[in-house]
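REVIEWER CHECKLIST
Item 1: Sequence provided? yes
Item 2: Single chain? yes
Item 3: Sequence as submitted:
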Amino acid sequence: MFHEIFFYISAMKKILVIIFLTYYISVSIAQPSIGWQKCLGGSETEWGLAGLQTADGGYLILNSTGSTDGDVLGMHGSSDAWLVRLDSMGNILWKKCYGGTDIDALVSIMPYDQNYFLVGGTSSNDGDVSGNHGNQDAWIIKIDSSGNILWQKCFGGTNVDAFNTILRVFNNSLVVGGYTKSNDGDVSGNHSSPAYDDSWVVNIDTAGNIIWQTCIGGTNEEWAKAICQLPDSGFMFVGQTSSDDGNVSGNHGGTNDAWVFKLNSSGNLIWQKCFGGSMSDLFVTSKQLQNGNLAMIGSTNSTDFDVSGNHGNGDFWLVKIDLTGNLLFQKCLGGSNIDTGEDFFETNDGGFIICGQTVSTDGDVMANYGNTDCWLLKTDSSGIVEWGKNYGGTGHEDFRQTFPTSNNSLIALGHTMSNDFDVSGNHSSFLKLDSWVVKFDSLPLTILKDEMKSLRDYLILSPNPTSGKLKIQNEGLRIESIQVFNLFGEEVLEATATNEIDLIDQPPGIYFIRLQSEGKIHSAKVVRQ
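Item 4: Structure as written out by the authors:
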C-alpha cells in the first residue's frame, strides 16, 4: 500500500509540474512585454488622459499638467491641458499647453481629416480661452496637425459645465457629451440645476455652432462618459446616475447606477436603462462589437441585482447588452481589494483587452508592485481571463486608456508616481505624478478585430491589397455614400456616388469601407500596402 501511495504521489507531482509548466509557458508567451515606456511631465502633477496613433506611426498624448519645467513649456496658470507629440519610439517631437490662468483640462481627442478636436472644461477666460459663460464651461478646441489652435469655443451657462467625449457622426457634424449644472446660456431643460449635474449632449457643426442640445437626467447626479453611434444614426451614451425620476427609471439604489441611454439623431431620448446593484456602479466607456451588440467597461461595488461574482470592494465590470438595452452578459474581474476598470477594446476572437488600476493581489490579479498598479488583462468572449499582468512600481499607477497600434501591438497610457520596476525617468518628486505612456511589443495571441462594427453584406473591391485605388466590383449597386475608417474606427475619407475609392493619400494599414445603397449598408476590409 505504501508503494502504491508513493507512486501515486510521484505521478501526481509530475502531472502538476507539467500543468504548471504548460500554464507558465502559455502565459509567458501571451502576456505583453514592454517595448518602451516614457514618463512625461515636470516637477508638479501630470495626468495622462487620452491618446491616439498618428498616420506616421507616432502618437498624440493628451494630458493635464501643473508644471512649468521638465518636459512642460508654456503653461498659462493653475493647470493646463497639455498635448505631446511622440514619434514611434516615444521621443518627444513637440508639445503644447492650452488654457488660461485658471484651471483648464481637455480629456478627449478625436481626429477630423488632417486636424483634431479636443474637448474638456475650462475655468479661464484669458490666454487661449474666450467666451466663458461663468464658473466652469465645457470647452472645445480645434487644432491642426502641428498643434496650432484653429478655433476654440466655450459652451455652457453660469454654473459648472464640462465635456467628456466627442464623436464625428455620419452627417459629419460632432456630438459631444458631458455634464452640466447650468440651466441658462447654452443649456436648457436641466432637471437638477443648480445642485446636481445632468448629462448634457450637444450636436454642433464643424465651426462650433450648436445644432441641438439636450439635458438627460433626474433630480440627482448624472454624467455622460462615452458615446458610440448606432447603425440607425442614433447615439448610445454610457455613464452614471443617482436619480430615479425625470428621464431616469429603474435605479437599483446605492450611490450610483451604471447608466445607458439612447438618443435619436435629433437628440430625442429613445430609451434608458440602469444597470448595477445596491452599491455604487458606473460605466466609463463603451464600444460596439463585431456582432452589433454593445460592451461597456466600468466598476462595481455591488453583489446583487445585475451584478454577480464580485471579488470584494470594487471590481472591473464588463457588461454586454443588445441594441435595446437587454443585459446579455456581465463579468466581475479583480481581487479582494479595489480594482477600477478604465478602458478596453475587442479582439478578433471576440475577447477583450482591458486596462485600469488595481490594489489587489488575489483573485484574478496575480501580483502587485506596491500601492496601486496598472492592470492590463486579456479575456475571452465569456470574460474568462486568459492573461493578466500588473505594471508599475512601488508608487501609484493607473492606466486610463489602451488602444491597438498599426503593427498589432498596443499602447497604454495613464500616470505614475513611481521611479522603479517598470517605470524610469519620472520627473516628479514624492506624491506627485508624471504621465506614463507604455508601448508593448507585438501580441502573437492577440490579433486585432478584422470587422467594422455593425456592418453587414460584404463588398467586392479590387485590387485588395491595394497601393492606392480600389474598384467597386458589385455590378448594379447604386451607391449613395462611401465612408472609409481606419483601424481605430476613425473616418479618414468620405465620398458620394463613385465606383472608385482612392486611398493613395492614406498610410499603409487596414481600412474598413462602409457603403450605403438604397438604405442598406455594405462593407469590406481592405489593406493599403
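Item 5: Key structural point noted by reviewer: Residues 1-29, 444-458 have pLDDT under 50 and may be disordered.
Item 6: Recommendation: ____
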